Amino acid sequence: MRKAGALLAGKVCAILNCTKTELNRWANDGRMPADGAIHLCTPKSLDARAWLPATVEDAKGRIAEWRRNDTIVKTARRRKLRIVRGIECATRS
């Protein structure tokens, strides 16, 4: 991945108007995985996740749906509900 075209997490968050927590959740669960990594030579050498501009543009149209699904899942967990095929169902423990 070339540094010139790659977008790091901070820039992706700014473009998508999302928080770092949301971006991490979407990357970890596979909705928006990083396209690669860039090795940054700072005082402490590290590899940073990077996304291609096309990937970020494609994700823009799905952000509202992802947030709606995240809200449903969060509410279901808080109320101890089970989600079946996108439908909330009450369970008894």
CATH class of the largest domain: Mainly Alpha
Average pLDDT value? 85
The tally of beta strands, per DSSP, is 5
**What distance lies between the first and last C-alpha atoms, to the nearest angstrom?**
49 Å
Q: Any idea what the shape is? A: elongated
The CATH topology of the largest domain turns out to be Multidrug-efflux Transporter Regulator, Chain: A, Domain 2
The main pleated sheet reads as: 3 strands, antiparallel
Number of folding domains?
2
Compute the CA-based radius of gyration. 17 Å
Sequence of strands across the biggest β-sheet: 1-3-2
Q: Counting H and I runs of at least 4 residues, what is the number of helices?
A: 4
Q: How helix-rich are the residues, as a percent range?
A: 40-55%
Classification by helices and strands: alpha+beta
Task: Please characterize this protein's 3D structure.
- It contains 4 helices and 5 strands.
- The chain is of the alpha+beta class and 93 residues long.
- It folds into 2 domains: 1-61, Orthogonal Bundle (Multidrug-efflux Transporter Regulator, Chain: A, Domain 2); 62-93, no CATH class.
- The strands form 2 sheets. A 3-stranded antiparallel beta sheet has the order 1-3-2. It has a two-stranded antiparallel sheet with strand order 4-5.
